[in-house]
Write a structure and sequence with these properties.
By secondary structure, this protein is an alpha+beta fold. It contains 5 helices and 10 strands, in the order H-E-E-E-E-E-E-H-H-E-H-E-H-E-E.
Length: about 230
């Protein structure tokens, strides 16, 4: 069974079922994004509300949630906006899901594992600490959307241009549990798929269990988008 977990810093845990992506959608109103890039307000790939994104790879899961692949996407942020630190959000915990097909697909998107590695997995979890949301009003969203159209890289392209309306930032603790030892190559694949620009290092837990954990501090985790043409 594959298990995904989301956790935070405030209020009590609230259980639910489904994939990690489904939890982000139901609890925070955002879709999961990969890779899990560093939160850098000055980056050309900053996923703040008002930013326009083109060429997003949308992967639908069996529980109707989505994982947005941004590796090949063009991102056009709006400069000079003061977003503050974002709004802190309440805790959330996701219970194990029995939807193996959906979770297996999500594990492949998150970690880049092949079928053989997926078959050896016993479970995985992603826990969020200090989650905070950034939002933008509809009127401002339309205003910034119109302005961002001046950037030729993000100019309207039929059905393939979106504007971010809200985004989620958090520190992510990832744990992968396998039925057999994972090789350095498999762990490196997971690290580079999750965060290609700043790969993390997985550490094996003490004891006989093949559990490997890594922390990704202060990362973009998910976004909500509005389609623009």
């Amino acid at each position: 069974m594959l298990c995904t977990v989301v956790a935070g810093d405030a209020a009590a845990f609230v259980p639910s079922t489904g994939t990690f992506a489904a939890t982000l959608r139901s609890r925070y109103g955002v879709d999961a994004v990969v890779p899990v890039e560093r939160f850098d307000p000055k980056s050309s790939r900053a996923l703040f509300p008002g930013s326009t994104i083109v060429n997003v790879n949308v992967n639908a899961l069996a529980d109707k949630s989505k994982v947005l692949g941004l590796a090949a996407a063009t991102i056009c942020p709006m400069p000079g906006i003061k977003y503050g630190r974002g709004q802190a959000t309440a805790r959330h915990k996701q219970s194990p899901s029995r939807e193996m097909k959906s979770n297996g697909r999500e594990a492949m998107l998150l970690f880049g594992f092949d079928g053989d590695t997926l078959g050896s997995l016993k479970g995985y979890s992603l826990e969020l600490s200090q989650p905070r949301l950034f939002r933008m009003s509809f009127d401002l969203l339309n205003e910034f959307s119109a302005r961002s159209g001046a950037d030729t890289a993000c100019a309207p392209k039929a059905g393939n241009r979106s504007v971010i309306s809200q985004s989620l930032v958090a520190t992510v603790d990832v744990t992968i549990i396998s039925r057999r030892p994972l090789t350095p190559h498999q762990l490196d694949t997971a690290a580079r798929t999750l965060s290609p620009d700043s790969p993390v290092t997985f550490q094996k837990a003490a004891g006989d269990e093949f559990a490997y954990s890594a922390r990704l501090p202060d990362r973009w985790v998910g976004i909500a988008t509005e389609q623009r043409r």
